[in-house]
Amino acid sequence: MAINLAAATSLDQIADALHVTFVIVSQAALKAGYLRDVVKGAVVLTLINLGQFASSETLEIRELAATELPLYLELALIVDDGEAATIALAIHQGVDLATDDRRARRLCAERRLVEPARTVALLRAYAETAQLPDGEIRKMLIRVRDRASFLPARSDPDMKWWNDHIRDA
Amino acid sequence: MRDEELDAGGGPPLGSRLRAAREARGLTQAQAAAELHVSRPLLIAMEKGSREVQPAELVSLAKLYDRPVSELLRPTPPPVAIGARFRAVLASTPETDDLPQLITRLEELADNYLDLLRRAGAGPPGQYPPVRRIEHLEPSQAAEDLATEERNRMGIGDGPIQLLREVLEVDAGLRIFIEPLPSRVAGLFVYVESLGGCVALNARHPAERRRWTLAHEYAHFLVSRERAEVTLVTHRRQPPGTERFADAFAANFLMPRTGLLRRFNELKRSRGGQITAAALVQLAHTYQVSVQTLTLRLEDLRLVRPGTWDRLRDNNFQPRAAAQLPGLETDDEQAADSLPFHYRILATQLYADGEITEAQLARYLSTDIVGARRIYQRMTETRDVSDDGASQIVDLAEALG
To answer: Would the pTM of this model clear 0.95, i.e. be above it?
Structure first.
């Protein structure tokens, strides 16, 4: 999720517009990786540096407490370290989750967590709150599609909004 | 020691995984215990499984060993047989200082493969041909006979093998990885019961050279699969018998006598009885081997005069530059896909079915999340034409989801 938002625009802008502070566990922050930008016809890797937001109110990087580790390890039997730590944090600390991943969303449902937010819903909320013109929305969605190689699931409730805005004018 | 014992690594999965991770990190039990602020006997007990590992200890050990917690928690033991099999070979192989790291990497890839198979509830693909006995046989004749037999078994006639890697993965059940190896190392071969024959080819070598190495390693698989092999790039006139056999097998398997003779004669006839350097480039391209390999094979078959390659080289013949002129360069991008195709299919299918997460897909594919998305999209689309003849991309993931 952080990867998609980082590809869309500055995380600062989304956090400011939506009046939220994003929280990420250190295990997930380490896995952010790179965006793909095309420069002069060649694919260039752009590091997703989530640490740059850690000192602002945009993003908080948290470590799991000792009491949260048993659940983290239980979940790490099923999913990857970052996802396990994120879900353990959400369960223990009541943080709202955001993920598009099918397996992670199913695990959240099994653990009776509130349904996680999706990328397109967050981008739509940001676009509407910031009153972005259609042209800007389109550019933002194209950045998410191309830089992060993100495509919404067919079942995404905001799929129509995504398609309507990313389509050529 | 039997393979199952080697594979198991001794003790329960977590303990044997902790031990394997520590050894791969190059730490002694005393060093790891000191880093963890526990006694050495306590660490030994954790590795033996006689003392439960506390959550905080496991997280600390994962950090110390630079391994994901989720990997240490896999319910199966690590495939330590690979390292065990290579140890004897490394002792007798010169200039292989950095190979232990590569063997650790091969173990990691094999572990990932086995984990994918476990998650998919599948077994490794491929039908293993029986081990052939070649003792007391003349190496070059035995190699030609076996190459012909293998081609017949696979039903691939006597022409060039266009998709060698796919043929050997699917029909022979080899697990073929392409990894950056030291330049002097052409490839590695090891056989483990749980996964079968595993080959690592040098990503730094050209695709043509990798094909040769692959055919060479396949020869080892056919006749001596119990012995791990490190194949070095050598230009010795008299290599050992097993290497001479493997090279002769590669030549016959990639360029069978009858098919090569027919194509060579057709080419010669079409050029008025003359064989030029450009003709050699064309023939090498057809068989996807280097011009040197092709020319030496033609010399062996007495289709060109002995010393032809030496004369070409002395006259500054540059195969790479010559091949570029007619636009015949091979597809390096496709050849650079480092993981076995079946491995990638397993990972892709598990992700499409919602059985693994995006981060797990990225870990299996040895890339980051955006890289995994790109590979997934490439693996789940196919190019086709619509009813009106327009080019289109069909998204298979939609059908899978």
So the answer is: no
